[in-house]
Design a protein that fits this description.
The protein is an alpha+beta fold. It has three domains: 276 residues, Spore Coat Polysaccharide Biosynthesis Protein SpsA, Chain A, CATH 3.90.550; 67 residues, no CATH class; 105 residues, Sandwich (Jelly Rolls). It is 22% helix and 34% strand. The strands form six sheets. Strands 17-18-19-26-21-24 form a six-stranded antiparallel sheet, with no helix packed on it. A five-stranded mixed barrel has the order 7-10-8-9-12. The chain is globular.
Length: 486
Amino acid sequence: MLHRTIITPVILCGGSGTRLWPVSRKSFPKQFVPLIGGKSLLDLTLERLRPLGPSLMVVAAEAHRFMVADALQASPGAAQVILEPVARNTAAATALAALLSAQNGEPEALLLFSPSDLHIPDAAAFARSIEQGVAAAEGGAIVTFGIVPTSPSTAYGYIEHGACRADGAHQVERFIEKPGADHALQLVLSGQVLWNSGIFLCRASTLLQALQQHAPDILASCREALPAALDTPAEPAAAPPDTHWVAPLPGAFTACRSQSIDYAVMEHHANLAVVPYTGAWSDVASWNAVADHTPADAQGNRIQGQGLAPLSHDTYIHAPHRPVVALGTKNLLIIDTPDALLVAHRDCAEQVKDVVAQLKSQQCAQAVIHRKVARPWGWYDSIDIGERFQVKRIGVKPGASLSLQKHHHRAEHWIVVKGTAEVTRGSETFLLSENQSTYIPIGELHRLRNPGKLELEMIEVQSGSYLGEDDIVRLEDSYGRVPATP
């Protein structure tokens, strides 16, 4: 351990990543999307933080619990996962983690808070920076980690630092919100600022005292929400056995005020320090940042997937599903998905979130959900829909099963295209192999299970007067879902 000090990493896994729409959406935000080298940002964060301590915490939305479970399955080790029933920003998320640490009998534990959506490829350099902040944190400071700026970026907040402290960190003079271009240039030329990474280190007791001083209402709400948290929900089947699930009380937590930890505590706290980090870093917060991780050709074009850019310059194409051609374009971002397309000038990358807000106001489903939807047992992809019918591709993980359910308004036809399906229909249970099919009448109890070691893939054709996802009556379920919910 660093300085023989036990550190508990706390991964803040909330956020919807709207600036990376249409790939990142509320139902499947950017931290779970395989954006870099076939791995998600959460996968990379787990790889970077696992060596820092024997166990870690993850604070995530309850709706994403099964995606978190999948990531933890690929990163074995002890973990506690706090499942927020609603999003209440980072002040509440960090308060829950500090309170849980105290409940665990470790109020003096050092907690390293880190967003889940950062890309820091040099794990060794990152660990050395954390080590430089341990003495200050053990001395009672909240230690932030600032990125040495490489440009006068207007996309990041800044931290102005002062003299070096006796503990080796620098004193924080002030936080600066995302500046305009001229102000950003002045800040960088001063040599006294760092980009705010959102990473900080402190004792659990230090954070609780700071919250009590600066945001007592947030702390009180989280304290009220936590007592029943140790009555944990049913664990996802994919979760490692040493993963512990914590569910705060929804009513108390929903009443909590939503505010970032920067606004609630950092900007007001006296004992605040910062350690510079000089290694490679990206918050992957916009399509420009994603593009920068893709090699450029001689014309500055960056292509992922089936993109072509003849006579084009400085154009980024994300096209994993079909050919996308940009002819004679310049400084464009082109992001293609099966159900939504984004074409933007590179100078407008930060405004994508505003477009998502507009789509939400118009009740556009593509603003928040993908055509392909993750489920605890696998996924489904709605490939066609029309009057009184819908066609889905369904993938079921090995050993997983859908709930025992029925529908009031639709019948279903199932065709197995890969793997083996165990079908329960009424009182009978039977196997279907590739190229075989069956029919589920309206109102019939049924269940689909994958008994094999490979993924089961099938085509489902629904027909009936109503095809909504809320026409599901669940009688038994392996994932703790409430009956009659989608």
